[in-house]
What does this fold into?
Amino acid sequence: MDGPRSTHLAANSNGQATRTTPTPSFAQTRPRAGDGRSPQRQREVVVVTGASAGVGRAVARLFGEHGARVGLIARGRDGLEGACRDVESCGGEALAYAADVSDPQHVEAAAQEIERQFGPIDIWVNDAMTSVFSPVKEMTPDEFRRVTEVTYLGYVYGTMAALRRMLPRDHGTIVQVGSALAYRGIPLQAAYCGSKHAIQGFTESLRCELYHDKSKVWVTMVQMPALNTPQFGWVKSKMPRKAQPVPPIYQPEVAARAVYWAAHHRRREINVGMSTLLTVLANKFASGLLDHYLGRTGYTSQQTSEPEDPERPSNLWQPVAGDRGAHGAFDDRAHESAPELWAAMHPLPTAVAAAGVAGATAFGVRRLARRAERDGAGARGR
It folds into this structure.
């Protein structure tokens, strides 16, 4: 049967919803065997902030592939329309709400409209961000404030909107899209790193409170590596050359798979990619050495050899026009998979394999020791 039409929404300057032309969705909705609830309610209701591009766009599409009803929140209307098409083409349902996550009233209005259209929210993914590539000495107070309001407080406001709905139902999962930079600051991204550190602390505090209240609402954080997203071509930059992610670089679909998995497994935190894990460990045990190393290499590693256009538009204050999609300009250098993520998502096979390797190693060591012992006894006999 044909599924219900999905409604695209936009917010006016007051954050109020205004309808645009609806787009039909023809995905079928079937009840699970033995479940008496209505077929329509079988679809997960998911909210993704920062859904118009990059990781948020890839996350929305992946939930759409699993038949979810996805509420999309972002500022850019062109990207939101593209995200709606992505979700619907995969078999999901999409509802877009143009809002600035730095305004808590906009976030709350979006949550209300999504629940009115789609029903109770099951999963809330916070991903909206902005940044400025610049040394601290060249930043302005307004730039620091803006990055913090979007990248940190946007997560706080999204989390609070989700909790208002999830706590009374004692059900739901909040996924914070984090970064290795939540543990380790790097040069030229002080505002962004500070925001990611703040999200980490905020999430840990909230998690403790949920444990205290014996709540079944779950909050998890997914720490990302360098990703091939459009952000490097639209965040504000004061550097002489174009910005780039520090290799190794991963495609946003790798991040999306981690977010989707985290939303359905009660894991406290997931580190995506070996580079993220090594960054966290290196900062724990050799933070001083990292200070000096990043001081020497952090400027050049975050810039390409191409000159930056000082006049290009940025998304710090207003969304950049156009639909940028999920991918950035580094497809030829980006990895499609992360073996370390697979291991984190499949702990039992990984443990079995590790035990097998350890057992084989121990067996080999014992054989070598016995052979050495026999050879030594033979030499003594001669």
